[in-house]
């Protein structure tokens, strides 16, 4: 479809948005120990926290799934300024940033693709029917987050078809007492950041919270500059002690140089992109009505991509997508356990210069039951039954079993079916070259995931490990029939298995200097697909991944966090990266110095897009 024609049809939609050095690393780790006192303290104190690993809330200590929780305290200590950077310190979760500073980032779990990981905000799904490249375009600041829950493994039974390899649930702060929190920072590459959060609650139980954020940089390389502007509004009205309604709404605008994001250097394009994302969610919770929860959600995403930055006509792709959804869930405790019933109805639309105009609807029913808890045994079974336009009826069941061996050790077993329909980009994309060509005959992705895990806790030591196997009958990949071909074709591949081993250990020290240390490791491998074609995504994952962290408390006011990451990605150079944040905290203000990539390692998360070889920033926060 011609861009000019589409722009005439939709004039309001397309207005411009105008380590290599292991000894050095070891010395750094030992010389400044700490990285996440929050995580260890909270790992042991989070037992009563309710997490969303089922259709009803479950205590973290009783969960039978592989879940990692990042708390607000840990986030404050991390050397990060965006949600993407926070998530980059979680193993099994592959954050592939195109540049830095909260720009475009792909999120995947356990070697899956960026389309197979579901993002949720307060338990509400945020799917993008155009492409998973836009999943992290959410107006959430780190200071807005109460915690992040990372659920590994099939989440389709719980959340629907997008939770193919796992889900990331961002839980926002619900604090409405009168307060003002502000932060400013600056650093290398003419980078700057400013954010403010204001909250208030009246005597009638009406609370409001508004957060605004701005960040920009001239870029660490040519045409890698960015400007981000975003706002988030939250409101809660307490109807009674047993019911409340909440409103969550946000908007985010990004504009950034996208040099070599999607084209190789030999093409000599000067890529540029602008996005505008907005959403609103109206929720109601009614505990006296069988714990009824209702969510009405709307999301709009606009994307303009240019091959030549200064041209608004030649080599331009413009897309607008809409998602409308309604979901409701009830659960009830009775003598035979806890039973849950839920529905999810959504409509997805896209209007695009490269994809044409399409829409589809999805209607799902969720059924789940947890059997009465025994002293040593706990079990949950459930299924999702969906009807999807163009694909018909499909069911993805699953089950989890937890066995308490003794007071220190338990084992968890799970099985689940995953399912994902192609995005509109998978089905219909053409860039006019073409260098990429969608396939309207694609079949959905399907897989079974099997997992066994152990959880061990003794005093201040916590260990969690697991093994999983994802057996995919069909996956969606982009391939070339000949390595010298210019065109990537979307196609289904048959029979691919992904195996993985995950382990993470945390120890809380009793010494005044060292507070906590953590070590996490993930190993992944995939079977060879039976094709002579060149694959774009199937083998593009982190084979070995290590994240180690340690936290120091030099005085009651001065602390330091140090994070080490080892990344061995198929087809990329191995990378050792060390980041740190030194912070001073007083009663109502704090200051920090952040140094990313101390080792000055040249590494890539996306081909042809090197990450910054170092980045130093300083910041000041005030709370009133």
Concise summary:
The protein is mainly β and 624 residues long. It has 7 helices and 35 strands.
Detailed description of the structure:
This protein is mainly beta and 624 residues long. It has a single domain, classed as TonB-dependent receptor, beta-barrel domain (Maltoporin, Chain A, Beta Barrel), CATH 2.40.170.20. Helices cover 7% and strands 56% of the residues. The protein has 7 helices and 35 strands. The chain has a 22-stranded antiparallel beta barrel. A 5-stranded mixed sheet has the order 3-8-9-6-7. The chain has a two-stranded antiparallel sheet with strand order 1-2. A hairpin with a 2-residue loop joins strand 24 and strand 25. The relative contact order is 0.15. The N terminus is likely disordered.
List keywords for this structure.
624 residues; mainly beta; 22-stranded antiparallel barrel; disordered N terminus
Draw up the topology in text.
Blueprint: H1 3-9, H2 22-31, H3 37-45, E1 50-51, E2 58-59, E3 67-71, H4 72-77, H5 83-87, E4 93-97, E5 105-109, E6 117-121, E7 124-126, E8 145-152, H6 156-159, E9 166-172, E10 179-187, E11 191-201, E12 206-217, E13 226-240, E14 243-257, E15 272-286, E16 292-306, E17 316-334, E18 337-352, E19 356-370, E20 377-388, E21 392-404, E22 409-420, H7 424-428, E23 436-437, E24 445-458, E25 461-480, E26 488-508, E27 514-526, E28 534-535, E29 542-553, E30 558-569, E31 575-585, E32 589-596, E33 604-606, E34 609-610, E35 615-623
Parallel strand pairs: 6-9, 23-26
Antiparallel strand pairs: 1-2, 3-8, 4-5, 6-7, 8-9, 10-11, 10-35, 11-12, 12-13, 13-14, 14-15, 15-16, 16-17, 17-18, 18-19, 19-20, 20-21, 21-22, 22-24, 24-25, 25-26, 25-28, 26-27, 27-29, 29-30, 30-31, 31-32, 32-35, 33-34
